[in-house]
Design goal:
Its EC number is 1.1.2.3. Keywords: Flavoprotein, FMN, Oxidoreductase. Its cofactor is FMN. With 383 residues, this protein is an alpha/beta fold. It has a single domain, classed as Aldolase class I (TIM Barrel), CATH 3.20.20.70. Helices cover 43% and strands 10% of the residues. Helix 6 links the parallel strand 5 and strand 6. Helix 1 packs antiparallel against helix 15, helix 4 crosses helix 5 and helix 12 packs across helix 13. It starts with 6 loop residues before the first helix and ends in a 21-residue tail after the last helix. The structure holds ligand FNR. Ligand FNR binds next to helix 2 and helix 15.
């Protein structure tokens, strides 16, 4: 990890080490990938205001998100199949996040189960919920998250049907992984690291295996999952979850002001302005372009989190300037995990926190609360 200076270095290393079908599962987006690209492009277009002679010697990136003290406003987003970027990936990523003083979100579609991650990590983590058709299973899953002392429940709203990702079809992605000739050839060109991922004990959906009625056959889980995403979901379901979950509730996948207002009214403690990292509605606007209006509309009622395209500390700074309390990172930490396991995630968080710290200094900020719209280069020009 010594020679790694930025997240792109981690990406290139992960590309060399992780089996192609899993690397591309993480790296790519849905359909034409317009929204995936827009997430990055629109962030990079936001120019920052350089300030001088403001005494920025003593700085801190510490902040509080949903009542939790964090070393920086950079949180790990929920990502499915994380244990296929590296064996036991969820356990390792959670440990790296906690050791760095920040928070980790476990996906419903994780490889390691809630119980396995909780057993390996004494501090509470966040749990992300997909609301599936089988509400008994969802009720049980919420109870498992409560028993594991998860400190927040993040309900994902933008995946009631799955957006197609061409690469996953072309690569023959399956869970657990089934080896086709093309995949075997790919893995033969990779370091032993790639084989280890496939030989790990946990190779399927850890939260589902053994918990879904009549589904002992691991091979049939993929079909079960595909048939379980629920297009009938409505705000009533969110009210039902609000009643079930006494702790902090976050709604993820909000891009529209009307939706944001309803989420706040139902009593969500936080929302994530997100388009699922450009993996769902291709053609949707970038999440950074949606952030300021949503933050203006409901930022005083509920905490605004943000994700989509965040690869640098400068990106985190941009999101905070436009009204986010914290930024979630998906691919950035997955690249770290694929590149170097726990050490790779630690490096990712360290690199990004330092980039944020230096950006704060060069823009004249010493605390996270100093970061507001006045740090943007075009501040005042539009008013
Ligand atoms: C995701 N995302 C996601 N979101 C969610 O709520 N549940 C999930 O299981 C997953 N799975 C998932 C897998 C992979 C490989 C990726 C890249 C993303 C979306 C994720 O939480 C987040 O919204 C995006 O990753 C943010 O964009 P960036 O940071 O990846 O650009």
């Amino acid at each position: 990890m010594k020679d790694i200076t930025c997240v792109e270095d981690l990406r290139l290393l992960a590309k060399r080490r992780v089996p192609r079908m899993f690397f591309e599962y993480a790296d790519h987006g849905s359909y034409t990938e317009d929204t995936l690209r827009a997430n990055r492009d629109d962030l990079q277009k936001i120019k920052l205001r350089q300030r001088v002679f403001l005494d920025v010697d003593k700085r801190s990136t510490e902040t509080t998100v949903l009542g939790e003290k964090l070393s920086s406003p950079i949180i790990l987003a929920p990502t499915g199949l994380t244990g296929m970027q590296h064996a036991d990936g969820e356990i390792l990523a959670c440990r790296a996040a906690h050791n760095a003083g920040t928070q980790f979100t476990l996906s419903t579609m994780s490889i390691c189960s809630i119980e396995a991650v909780a057993a390996a990590n004494p501090k509470p983590f966040w749990f992300q919920l997909y609301v599936m058709r089988d509400r008994d299973f969802i009720k049980a899953l919420i109870k498992r998250a409560l028993d594991a002392k998860c400190s927040a429940l993040m309900v994902t709203a933008d995946l009631v049907v799955t957006g197609q990702r061409h690469r996953d079809i072309k690569n023959g992605l399956t869970v657990p992984p089934q080896m086709k000739i093309a995949n075997l050839i790919d893995i033969a060109t990779k370091p032993a690291w790639a084989w280890k991922i496939l030989q790990t004990k946990n190779r399927s959906f850890g939260n589902l295996v053994g918990h879904v009625k009549g589904m002992d056959d691991v091979g049939s889980l993929g079909h079960w999952v595909a048939s379980q995403f629920d297009p009938t979901l409505s705000w009533k379901d969110l009210e039902w979850i609000r009643d079930q979950w006494p702790g902090k509730l976050i709604l993820k996948g909000i891009l529209d002001i009307e939706d944001a207002r309803i989420a706040a009214k139902i009593g969500c403690d936080g929302i994530v302005v997100s388009n699922h990292g450009g993996r769902q509605l291709d053609g949707a606007p970038s999440s950074i372009s949606a952030l300021p209006r949503i933050a203006d509309a409901i930022g005083s009622e509920t905490e605004i989190l943000f994700d989509g395209g965040v690869r640098t500390g400068q990106d985190v700074f941009r999101a905070l300037a436009l009204g986010a309390k914290a930024a979630l990172i998906g691919r950035a930490f997955l690249y770290g995990l694929g590149a170097g396991g726990e050490a790779g995630v630690t490096t990712c968080l360290d690199v990004m926190r330092k980039e944020l710290d230096i950006t704060m200094a060069l823009a004249g900020c010493t605390t996270i609360s100093d970061i507001g719209p006045q740090v943007l280069a075009d501040y005042g020009r539009n008013s």
